[in-house]
């Protein structure tokens, strides 16, 4: 029998002596309710070629809804987004086949640019540990045959998904940029990436994160999740569980848009909770700039000092290595 699971339990057991830290975090961050994120139909933005008066009013209202949700929630859902359900189902099927491969092969054979990750090797206490595995694939590598090995059918569907999510991310990002300063931003694909996530059933699900509390370090993220649920976000100083919705994609604001908007758009804390019954799969697209792109606020006075994306990533890596978790934007406050 193939053992496809990473040795999560063995690593977690080494942290059990700090079990009380998990319980304290759970009590302080108890989920109070399940929520439905703002739901925005973006058909009018996808079909932007139609310029009649009614459509223009619809487009303006749609853009305002996107910006309002980004300010009030930092998260929203989109439907009629132009990415076909058939393509998303095909990607999910290929993703499941990939994760059902033996752990030894996933971790040693260099699949998807040697991007396989599991758990959190930098964790120093249980609340920093993630009960999950993932492939973290740069867009620049997705077209390379050498990434895929025997998974030849994965290449075409990943390329198609990456292209579709890239177009959607750029569309939404430019809406957000134009509404604040009446100009589009050049969003590049040099450091963008896809992340294929698998959250395994967890025997310690009452106390375990599938993905630890964090904010995203990009401009924005597009997430395609399955029906299982587990995503939670911080709203009004309490955790709320996000109710999965068929055919909707979730969009969330990242740290860079919070800086650029001078805190108008919110990069909010979110996490994924483990469960003990079902596997959960998701696909995330992260819209990032080049490493030498200077990040600053679009209006003054700025809340943050300017920094390059490369400097931001390096600081996150140092903090994670030294403390087991990301510090993020507080490092760059003026």
Automatic annotation (TrEMBL):
<dbReference type="InterPro" id="IPR005123">
    <property type="entry name" value="Oxoglu/Fe-dep_dioxygenase_dom"/>
</dbReference>
<dbReference type="GO" id="GO:0051213">
    <property type="term" value="F:dioxygenase activity"/>
</dbReference>
<dbReference type="InterPro" id="IPR044861">
    <property type="entry name" value="IPNS-like_FE2OG_OXY"/>
</dbReference>
<keyword id="KW-0560">Oxidoreductase</keyword>
<protein>
    <submittedName>
        <fullName>Isopenicillin N synthase-like, Fe(2+) 2OG dioxygenase domain</fullName>
    </submittedName>
</protein>
<dbReference type="InterPro" id="IPR027443">
    <property type="entry name" value="IPNS-like_sf"/>
</dbReference>
<dbReference type="InterPro" id="IPR026992">
    <property type="entry name" value="DIOX_N"/>
</dbReference>
<dbReference type="Pfam" id="PF14226">
    <property type="entry name" value="DIOX_N"/>
</dbReference>
<keyword id="KW-0408">Iron</keyword>
<keyword id="KW-0479">Metal-binding</keyword>
<keyword id="KW-0223">Dioxygenase</keyword>
<dbReference type="InterPro" id="IPR050231">
    <property type="entry name" value="Iron_ascorbate_oxido_reductase"/>
</dbReference>
<feature type="domain" description="Fe2OG dioxygenase">
    <location>
        <begin position="186"/>
        <end position="289"/>
    </location>
</feature>
<comment type="similarity">
    <text>Belongs to the iron/ascorbate-dependent oxidoreductase family.</text>
</comment>
<dbReference type="Pfam" id="PF03171">
    <property type="entry name" value="2OG-FeII_Oxy"/>
</dbReference>
<dbReference type="GO" id="GO:0046872">
    <property type="term" value="F:metal ion binding"/>
</dbReference>
């Amino acid at each position: 029998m193939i053992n496809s699971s990473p040795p999560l339990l063995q690593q977690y057991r080494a942290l059990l002596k700090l079990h009380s830290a998990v319980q304290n975090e759970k009590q302080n961050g108890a989920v109070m309710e399940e929520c439905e994120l703002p739901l925005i139909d973006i058909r009018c933005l996808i079909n932007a070629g139609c310029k009649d008066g009614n459509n223009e009013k619809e487009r303006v209202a749609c853009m305002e809804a996107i910006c309002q949700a980004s300010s009030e929630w930092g998260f929203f859902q989109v439907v009629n987004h132009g990415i076909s359900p058939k393509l998303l189902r095909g990607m999910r099927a290929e993703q499941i086949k990939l994760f059902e491969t033996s752990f030894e092969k996933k971790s040693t054979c260099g699949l998807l640019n040697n991007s396989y990750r599991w758990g959190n090797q930098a964790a120093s206490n249980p609340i920093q540990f993630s009960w999950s595995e993932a492939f973290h694939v740069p867009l620049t590598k997705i077209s390379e045959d050498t990434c895929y090995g025997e998974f030849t059918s994965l290449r075409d569907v990943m390329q198609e998904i990456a292209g579709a999510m890239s177009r959607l991310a750029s569309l939404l990002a430019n809406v957000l940029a134009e509404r604040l300063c009446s100009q589009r931003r050049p969003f590049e694909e040099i450091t963008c990436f896809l992340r294929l996530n698998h959250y395994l059933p967890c025997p310690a699900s009452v106390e375990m994160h599938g993905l630890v509390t964090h904010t995203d370090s990009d401009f924005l993220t597009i997430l395609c999740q399955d029906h299982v649920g587990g995503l939670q976000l911080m709203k009004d100083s309490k955790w709320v569980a996000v109710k999965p919705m068929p055919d909707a994609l979730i969009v969330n604001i990242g740290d860079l848009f919070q800086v650029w908007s001078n805190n108008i758009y919110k990069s909010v804390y979110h996490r994924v909770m483990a469960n003990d019954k079902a596997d959960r799969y998701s696909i995330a697209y992260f819209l990032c700039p080049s490493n030498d792109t200077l990040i600053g606020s679009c209006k003054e006075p700025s809340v943050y000092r300017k920094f390059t994306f490369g400097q931001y990533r390096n600081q996150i890596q140092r903090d994670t290595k030294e403390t087991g978790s990301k510090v993020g934007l507080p490092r760059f406050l003026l």
